[in-house]
Design brief:
Immunoglobulin-like, globular, five-stranded mixed sheet, 1 helix, mainly beta
Length: 131
């Protein structure tokens, strides 16, 4: 029996929770459960390897105040065509507005709970989702 098989399988499953590369898009937190987004909870991913290069991000839940913040440090080696981040409200409340780097952002889907960012050339991308 290969004892490393479980480790590699578990690692792949964990990575799928925190990021996915789909074609030329980088998806962040695609399978993070809404239970991880309760008030005060933080999801922090540092230097995760992707085909685009290392990516880091931090999600902070402030749902009692009506928002969730995400701070994204995009990969530098190759820019993805889009970064898509999934931010799920723990009570299933739908997004009503999004701000990216201080500006209103229209490319979001409240039903899928995602924000799509196509301008990925920044050193840091700040996202605020309002509920």
């Amino acid at each position: 029996m290969n004892r490393n098989a479980w480790y590699y399988g578990a690692s792949a499953s964990l990575i799928a929770l925190i990021l996915l590369c789909l074609a030329w898009e980088l998806w962040l937190a695609p399978l993070v459960t809404n239970n991880w987004m309760k008030q005060g909870m933080i999801v922090n991913v540092s230097n995760a390897p992707t085909k685009f290069g290392a990516v880091s991000y931090k999600i902070e839940s402030h749902v009692e105040d009506g928002y969730i913040d995400a701070h994204i440090y995009p990969p530098k080696r190759t820019l993805p065509e889009a970064i898509v981040i999934r931010l799920r409200h723990p009570d299933g409340i739908k997004m009503n507005s999004v701000v990216v780097n201080g500006k209103q952002h229209k490319d979001f889907d409240p039903e899928k709970e995602i924000v799509r960012i196509t301008d990925t050339k920044f050193d840091e991308i700040d996202v605020r989702v309002n509920y």
